[in-house]
Amino acid sequence: MRLTLICTLLLVTAFFVIYRTTADVWTATNSAGVVAVIFLIGLAFRVTRLFKGRREKLTAALISVLMIAGLATHWIIIWRMTEWQYAQLQPIRRTIYNGMVISTLTTPAYDTFREFRRSIPQATIGGVFRRLNPGGAPLVDSLITKETGPLFASVSDSTVELTGEARFVAGFDPEFVNHDKRLGLAQIRVRVTPAGVSYDIQN
Amino acid sequence: MTFKTSLRRIWEDPLHPVWIMLAMLELVVIIALFNRFVLHGPVLRDVLVRINLPALDFFLEDVNRVFWGSYIAAGGIRVSEGIAAFSGNSPAGSWVSAHTAVCISMVISYILGPSLLLWGLKARHQWVINKLAKPSSLSILIATAAGGYIVTGALLLPVGAGMESWNRWQTMKADSRANALRDGAISSVSALGFQAQQLRWMAGSKGGGPWSEAPGGITVADLEKILPSMERGIWQPGARGSMKYSLEIASRDSLTIWGIADLQGMNSDRTFRNKDGTTGNAQVRAGVTPARVTIALEN
To answer: In this structure, is residue B73 part of a structural domain?
Structure first.
């Protein structure tokens, strides 16, 4: 009874303290699981002692080992599988963001380039962009949605640069300095020059 | 004769393993009825919906999960953290009722349940020696059955469930690769289509102009400078090596690009002939004109 109470207290404390310290549910669960397994091994010894015959003792020990090993195996599989699922979600989110921003920014970029090619030799890239999108910034503002995050336009005669920066989606490099000086967020730059439209997934 | 003797022994021993097994079966029925009529019944369900306890659905679906599902629920919390991060929320670190439930479930599954079973077995041992000793045979029967029920689910079911979970995980990995390749094929042929459009709009002196009039024709090699950026941002690592492209010019203002992924296509009979000579692989087609890129999933 006393051992049961002590182990209950230890398990709950391990879970609570480690979760509060690491903010990681699996670290907390695994730590509490270690307490549980130590308790179960102790219990298995006591169950084995209940039997008199050698064969019964061996059977009880074997069943105990099988059950604890089975539990540990399933536990580890669920742990690794859900960590894998968690890790998969971040690139999926980044892919959705990249696809959305590329599609949003390349439309005005291709329109500008096509119109520029039609208007050669009088036009400049910047001039065409300004003509198609009076004001420039209002166009970019109208493209901003909850999904695309902030967009920035930089227009000169020879180059138009449209930059999309995520609100919260993490990029590849956590140290990357974004356009507005935040750190580590996904960022895409679409560039229109007389040579064509290109885009670069910067982070 | 032997059968009759055995039956009499079972009848005379209220703590015979047969009675313990029957009590465990009774627990199965009681819990099933509890799940059906109380947990999923109109009154409690309504109360729980109104309280809206976050992330407790896993336990509220089936009360057996309180006894057996602690680490599965922990995995559920981890995945729900990832899903919340999808919308920019970061719940990691905050203690919600599901964490309490995982903790309680672990205590019941691995401490209280097995302890109850051990206590029941030891008390039965004492009872066999002295039938008048306390506790009563009924309380020993209930404790042993309840402990046995919890231990069976918490420690015996995972032995078989491990293999099933492993297989499910491998299927998930294969599905994930398939989706990444299919998405990669769709996005890359559309990017190649846009590259082709740019060439169409450029002057012949700069390597552009009508597609059928380009000196030497247009090939995938002329367009694929876009692919490294695509690979970095859209695909998963290694996907590019599993992708092939094919291009055909139909006229000065029309061409078609195919993307073929090393992945079984939609037709399960694998008779579909791909543009690269293989059969049965996934294939995406981009029909390109100067004004439009049209994507179709062919297989």
So the answer is: yes
Measured N-to-C along each axis, helices B97-106 and A25-50 cross at an angle, to the nearest 10 degrees, of 20
Which residues from chain B sit within 8 angstroms of residue A23, using beta carbons? 92-93
Residue B173 included in any domain: no
Q: Are residues A29 and A119 in the same domain?
A: no
**Inside any domain, residue B156:** no
Q: Whole-angstrom Cα distance, residue B157 to residue B149?
A: 11
Which of B152, B170, B199, B201 is most worth mutating to test chain A (most A CB atoms within 10 A of its CB)?
B201
The letter for the amino acid at A23 is: A
What gap in Å lies between CA B56 and CA B54, rounded to an integer? 6
Same domain for B213 and B117:
no
CA–CA separation, B275 and B284 (whole Å): 10
Q: Summarize pLDDT for B175-201 with one digit per residue, the tens.
A: 887 887 888 888 888 888 888 888 888
Angle formed at CA A132 by CA A131 and CA A135, multiple of 5 degrees: 65
* B92/A24 Cβ within 8 A: yes
Specify the DSSP class assigned to residue B40: S
- Pick from B292, B293, B205, B278: nearest CA to B243: B278
CA distance linking residue B157 with residue B113, whole number of Å: 15
Residue A75 CA to residue A97 CA, distance in Å, equals 34
Strands A160-170 and B254-264: unpaired
Tokens found for residue B117:
């079973």
Do A144 and A77 belong to one domain? no
Question: Inter-chain contact B83–A89, Cβ cutoff 8 Å?
Answer: yes
Q: Among A89, A109, A137, identify where a domain stops.
A: A89
Looking at residue B110, what DSSP letter applies?
I
- Give residue-wise pLDDT tens across range B239-280: 556 788 889 888 888 899 999 988 888 777 678 889 888 888
How far is residue B3's CA from residue A72's CA, in Å, rounded to a whole number?
A: 41
ipTM surpassing 0.85: no
Name the residue in chain A with its Cα closest to that of B159.
A70
Query: Domain range spanning residue B260?
Result: 181-297
Question: Is there a single domain that holds both residue A80 and residue A147?
Answer: no
A78 with A126, same domain: the answer is no
pTM of the shown model? 0.79
Q: How many domains does the structure of chain B reveal?
A: 2
Q: How confident is the model at residue A100 (pLDDT cuts 50, 70, 90)?
A: confident
Q: Residue B54 pLDDT > 60, yes or no?
A: no
A53: left (phi over 0), alpha (psi -120 to 50) or beta: beta
- Which range of residues forms the domain containing residue A141? 92-201
Q: Which residues pair with A192 in a beta bridge?
A: A160, A197
Residues A50 and A113 in one domain: no
Q: Determine, for residues B165 and A40 on separate chains, whether the beta-carbon distance falls below 8 Å.
A: no
